[in-house]
């Protein structure tokens, strides 16, 4: 059913601007909440999944530019959120359609953003902005419906950038909980209930996306989610078959508590699977180094080479930091590389049951080519349980 967006007409007409730290100004109209927001400006090239992107905790403190020009066509719904709220610091789009139309839609994007207090700007020349970021690198920005140009530039410059920022503990859950919900099913428009619970997985929440937890449940895991700063000893007392290191925002390097815990799991030979920030933490815990990328990878169609099989996976990506392949010790083998820039996309320990992936096998949004990695984690837990193997 179509929803007329009469309630947002006023908001769309109100002027807003985006200022970058380099002094660039983009003029547009306010979409979402009135006010001012700052963060690191990045671009995402996915053509679908704006609600999943907005609610992905890995986007904390970032102003997300969506390069697909029409954003809002299918409205928003309660099921597609990857966490309990909008996590991106702001949204930058070309065109906010006048109608939101989809059988699952509950609310227009504009109304949703306003309810969430998220400042967004529409009518921006996102192609110019994306080229600027691609050429000069991600930079700090400010979206405002209330400041003048000079004030907005000053605000943009006051945002220090994500390098050195530990945001994982800022977005993590305060208390542990059990997660029992499987993936969303078209039939019945509902989430698949947990079926088997063959393995107990403790999942660190550094900003975890719900679809990761759902795919662990689908794969036959009982999932206990724990806060980012939970010591390894506490996790070990839960007798997990495996430990999962989640995605999350910010720089992995200052997360010393998580790096330390990961080292303890490696030493104990517990099966480990890391996604995105979790991959970076495994890299650091293994002796590697992380770097801030020029503008990162944010999209849903990035080709990644599976080094051993020679297969190319089309993947979902969202990261601004990376582990440097050259910094990895000899006991790590490279399993995946980006075909865009050859950066490290996946690795495994040769002598421990630990592996990780830089992209997003849970997609949401994006293609499912890398989804078999969840089965790989299951096989690893099976092998360790059977005492048959120590390699990822
Ligand atoms: N999605 C993620 O987990 C992102 C990891 C990290 N914050 C980065 O930007 O590289």
From TrEMBL:
Cited PROSITE patterns: GATASE_TYPE_1
Catalysed reactions, semicolon-separated: hydrogencarbonate + L-glutamine + 2 ATP + H2O = carbamoyl phosphate + L-glutamate + 2 ADP + phosphate + 2 H(+); L-glutamine + H2O = L-glutamate + NH4(+)
Carbamoyl-phosphate synthase small subunit N-terminal domain boundaries: 14-144
EC code: 6.3.5.5
Pathway: Pyrimidine metabolism; UMP biosynthesis via de novo pathway; (S)-dihydroorotate from bicarbonate: step 1/3; Amino-acid biosynthesis; L-arginine biosynthesis; carbamoyl phosphate from bicarbonate: step 1/1
Stretches the record annotates as CPSase: 1-199
Keywords: Amino-acid biosynthesis, Arginine biosynthesis, ATP-binding, Glutamine amidotransferase, Ligase, Nucleotide-binding, Pyrimidine biosynthesis
GO terms, molecular function: carbamoyl-phosphate synthase (glutamine-hydrolyzing) activity
Alphabetized InterPro entries for the sequence: Anth_synth/Amidotransfase (IPR050472), CarbamoylP_synth_ssu (IPR006274), CarbamoylP_synth_ssu_N (IPR002474), CarbP_synth_ssu_N_sf (IPR036480), Class_I_gatase-like (IPR029062), CPSase_GATase1 (IPR035686), GATASE (IPR017926)
Protein residues bound to L-glutamine: 58, 248, 250, 277, 280, 318, 320-321
Residue positions of the active site: 276, 360, 362
Broadest EC class assigned to this enzyme: ligase
Its job: Small subunit of the glutamine-dependent carbamoyl phosphate synthetase (CPSase). CPSase catalyzes the formation of carbamoyl phosphate from the ammonia moiety of glutamine, carbonate, and phosphate donated by ATP, constituting the first step of 2 biosynthetic pathways, one leading to arginine and/or urea and the other to pyrimidine nucleotides. The small subunit (glutamine amidotransferase) binds and cleaves glutamine to supply the large subunit with the substrate ammonia.
Subunit comment: Composed of two chains; the small (or glutamine) chain promotes the hydrolysis of glutamine to ammonia, which is used by the large (or ammonia) chain to synthesize carbamoyl phosphate. Tetramer of heterodimers (alpha,beta)4.
HAMAP family found in the cross-reference section: CPSase_S_chain
Family: Belongs to the CarA family.
Name of the protein described by the UniProt record: Carbamoyl phosphate synthase small chain
